[in-house]
Amino acid sequence: MQTAKQRLDKVLSSIHDAANRAGRAPDDIRLIGASKAQPVAAIRELAILGVQNFGENFVQEALEKQAALADLDLIWHFIGRIQSNKTREIAKHFDWVHSVDRIEIARRLSQQRPADQDPLNICLQVNIQHEPTKAGLDLESLDAVAHTVNELPAIRLRGLMVVPQPTDDLVAQRDPFAQLRTALERLNAQGLQLDTLSMGMTADMDAAILEGATMIRIGTALFGPRERK
Ligand SMILES: *Cc1c(COP(=O)(O)O)cnc(C)c1O
């Protein structure tokens, strides 16, 4: 059994190596602990080791963990599928939402963001490979959605997110990430100011960093296997 410290050191050194290969600064890549199905104690352990950002997929589970960890200064990211009846809780309890894929959801998050909080940071999730079971918008509708979402008052559109199909081949892994980066560059050329590419998980983080990821969402490599429900 590896300790949390050993797992974290390994992830940090992978980030470092991939950043070096890409000619990038490791500090430009924010590590998010994908903590779904992981116990509060494991999150606390990583937080004490210096991980400040955590991503959750389920609202109820996240709220319970946030309450149990309220003594720590953590940054919470919502990375799961968004049901419209959950937007109020998400708008109130998260700093970032990576998985926005409809204008309607963005509008609700903007309306429901409490006035005394900073604007909510948003990424649009793109379904690059047109997978029918996966969340995310098509690349073809991205530009129009991005420009509309960018005008909403209580959210800040920060960038794009993708969860590609798993593959072991590094070249195949890089392709959807490169497409996401190109889409971000295109939106910026159209006048948006996006600074975030949320891409890369345990199995494809090197490919994501090589293609410019600024946030990677790491579960298994950081926590070990998830508890089965
Ligand atoms: C679970 C999850 C991750 C982390 O996956 P690992 O393969 O365990 O690193 C990242 N992003 C999203 C959206 C997830 O649901």
Descriptive labels:
229 residues, alpha/beta, TIM Barrel, eight-stranded parallel β-sheet, binds pyridoxal-5'-phosphate
Under CATH, the topology can be stated as TIM Barrel
Task: Indicate the radius of gyration in whole angstroms.
Answer: 17 Å
Distance between the termini: 21 Å
Number of domains: 1
Name given to the CATH homologous superfamily? Alanine racemase
Q: What is the SS-derived class? A: alpha/beta
Question: What is the CATH-assigned architecture?
Answer: Alpha-Beta Barrel
How are helices and strands ordered from N to C?
Answer: HEHEHEHEHEHEHEHEH
Number of helices: 9
Specify the biggest β-sheet: 8 strands, parallel
Provide a descriptive summary of the structure in words:
This protein is an alpha/beta fold. The protein has a single domain, classed as TIM Barrel, CATH 3.20.20.10. It is 42% helix and 17% strand. An 8-stranded parallel β-sheet has the order 7-6-5-4-3-2-1-8. Helix 5 links the parallel strand 4 and strand 5 (120-125). Helix 4 packs across helix 5 (103-112). The longest helix is centred in the C-terminal third of the chain and has 20 residues, at 170-189. The chain is globular and about 50 Å long. The model has no long low-confidence stretch (mean pLDDT 97). Residues 34, 36, 57, 79, 163, 201-203, 217-220 line the site of pyridoxal-5'-phosphate (PLP). Pyridoxal-5'-phosphate (PLP) binds at residues 34, 36, 57, 79, 163, 201-203, 217-220.
